[in-house]
Amino acid sequence: MTGEKKNKGLARAAEIYQSRDKRARELKADGKKVFGYFCCYPPVELMTALDILPFRIMGDMDEPITVADAYLPTIMCIFYRSCFDIAKKGRYDFFDGFIGAHACDGAERVSHIWRYYIKSPCSFFLDIPHTSHSAAIDFFKVQLNYFKETLEEFMGKKTSPERLKEAVSLHNRQRALVRDLYDLRKSDPPLITGSETLQVLISLMCVPVEEGNTILEEVIEEVKERKELPEKKACRLLIWGSLIDNTAFTDLIESSGLNVVIEDTAIGTRPFWHDVELTEDPMDGLALHYLKEFRCPRTFRETGPSYREDLESRFGYLKEFVKDWNVNGAYLNIIRNCDIHGYEVPAVRDYLEGLGLPVLVIEQDYSTAALEPLRTRFQAFAESIG
Amino acid sequence: MEAERKKKKRTSAKTLQTAREAGYFGKKMLQNALKAREEGRPTAWSMVTWWEGELIAKAMGVELVFPENWGAFCASVRAAEPHLDRSHGEGFPSTLCGYARNCLGYARNMADNNLEVPPDAPGGGLARPTFLLSSGAACDARYKWFQALGRYLEVPVWTLELPHTGVKEYFLPGNKEHNIRFIVSELKEYVAFLENLLGKKLDWDRLSEIVDQTFKTLRIAYEVDLLRKAVPSPMVAQDFWSIMIPHLYLPDDPEAYEFYKRVYDEVKYKVDNKIAAIPNEKYRMMFSELPPWHTLGFFDEIAERYGIALVIESWSYHAIPPIPEEELEGVTDPLELIARLTYRMWTGYNETALEYGVDPGFFMSAYLKWAKEYRADGLFCHPLMSCRPATYTLLHTGNVLMDKFKVPSVVIDGDIVDLRVFNEEEAFSKVEAFVETMDHYREVRKKEGLPW
Ligand code: SF4
Ligand code: SF4
Description:
- The complex is a heterodimer.
- By secondary structure, chain A is of the alpha/beta class.
- Chain A is built from 15 helices and eight strands.
- Chain A has helices at residues 9-18, 22-29, 44-49, 78-88, 105-117, 134-155, 161-183, 194-204, 209-224, 247-254, 282-293, 307-324, 339-342, 345-354, 375-385, and strands spanning 33-37, 52-56, 97-101, 122-126, 235-241, 258-264, 329-335, 359-364.
- Chain A has a four-stranded parallel beta sheet with strand order 2-1-3-4, with helices on both faces.
- Chain B is α/β, with parallel strands linked by helices.
- The structure holds iron/sulfur cluster (SF4) (2 copies).
- Residues 68, 97, 99-100, 138-139, 141-142, 387-390 of chain B line the site of one iron/sulfur cluster.
């Protein structure tokens, strides 16, 4: 194995976070195939089972969007514009495959456009239904099978249900470890900061699952034994909404008098909160998991008979987060032009306020250059709680 | 004088007599729903679902109104602003779809008025719905918006599924039929939902009649499109944006069918007699995707000043090219006919997309086919602040048209409801400069041996 590991635990996570493609490029040089994928919907288990490294495509808040302007209009989700921008600049030129997904509008259209301008030896566009009706789950399973066959054809080998089950177990192990890590944020102060957690979670999305699991085990052990704890602050914050993939943002929040204790986002709890059920045909468990268990508001949930009941059925899980992590303030993070989260703002706010939490809503521009002006809003929010 | 000029320019001068009469259908929809509500019959607010959900609801005796269409109406009479403010006050981001914000603000007003239509509602308002019919097609707004209405209306929302494969995936063995089967099973669930909600059974014969009528109306609307390939163009986008209402919203209505027969005759007469929609047609442009409803007169002015005819436009509002006969052989189940119809809408240009190696098949690929068939000199791109799907692929479409056919595009920002985004003076100067670009590329196409 090239690229012998020097660091362990948090330091290793920080290292991967800093140079996200480094390990993937090393592995590629050793002959491993690397596939970039959008959002949390393409099952990573299928890629792992075929010895492919699934690499989560992210944007770069530090990089001004320039090249994408000729391809994607400014009204598009800025996160996906950024993903495309850095890809067009060559940042993802090591991909052997590209997996687009009909996760949300932004992901869907950028997937199509991506395939025209950025060529990879293999590509697949995963259609994802909008509901979790039983017909939708059956349909999704069919789509997952097409996805699997595309990977198998490219890799020139077939996977077996046994191998797939092993991959599911490995990823479930990762999910369990992430939940253990989140448990370490229940104390006051939390044993690990939001920025550190983000580094760990992002590192998991850039390396093979086994390596990620080792990092997690090391991190958990290290954090448990920590002598120097993060600073205790008056506000224990829940973040809900569009993803955050840069610690500049969490640093800004945490240096404004808030402790981030839990994030209900696509690089937070969402990909890890439920295990994939090990069904006899593993494809059943995968279809069920990604369409039904995974809680992104991009999937329509049946409305209840009343607004209150509807809120409860859609956001009831947040109540557990608030209780178990002793949350006393919520921040709704909306990347500008992210409609999926934008439409939810009044409803989520109603729900969280109903739990007695103060709520801060910010539409932001996914740019570190535009972060500083937000500081006063976070500070004022922290003061209102403290 | 200036005020008068402005007033004149708000609406466009339609070139077809039939287009001038089409406003009737929009009013008919709104009034039918208000009447149904008064008489205690079921009503629904519906997304455009490209006939997937509407036809079944109608067969169940539900009167439908379309908040997207009503949004366009509010914008055209410049009555959307107070609704937008209201929606903003509720905490909805102002980057969301303009029609959605218009509707959310209106629903807030309704909630304040015991869920009845507020007295000053534009066009008589949207009748209180028995349920909401949302859709997973085209954009996230189409189901997130209706879900968000739960805050005010507390009525059930049904979300229809419509598969969105990529082009390559569409051609994977068996995938298309899987997609159709999925739509059919979803439609069965939808029928069960309606039967349960309305406490009555679906009249399948009535549904078959409705489906039959719809196929006929769409066929003739498509034939009108074919006539438009003529040079000079017998009708323009200013006409289409009026006549699209009946086939898009009321294709099952025999009146709509009769109307299209007249449209067809009128357009055919103009083609046969070489009567141009605009007298000095010099440039033939395509338009994508939704126009600035509050400033439609702009297009008359560019016709007058530069001889620009918008010969084909707005893919998502057109009738689909008919389904091949062999695909329909032996298909009698009205649910399957509907599934095939709507699916065709979204995949009908996949062959074109495959031919040119592009994605997606919807929204952009039609323009590739049209560029050739309608002998287009350019594409007028109208990116909207607040309609994402109409905007996402615009630049891409422009790039591909240039790559493949040396057809240039011009980008003029605007919006469907927000008046402030469209800067008319700037738009005129851009178009003026673009005329030269079109001249230039005509030469380039000639040199490269392209047929127009
Ligand atoms: S809205 Fe949902 S699907 Fe879209 S990027 Fe965010 S988490 Fe992913
Ligand atoms: S974003 Fe566009 S397509 Fe979607 S609901 Fe709004 S107007 Fe309709």
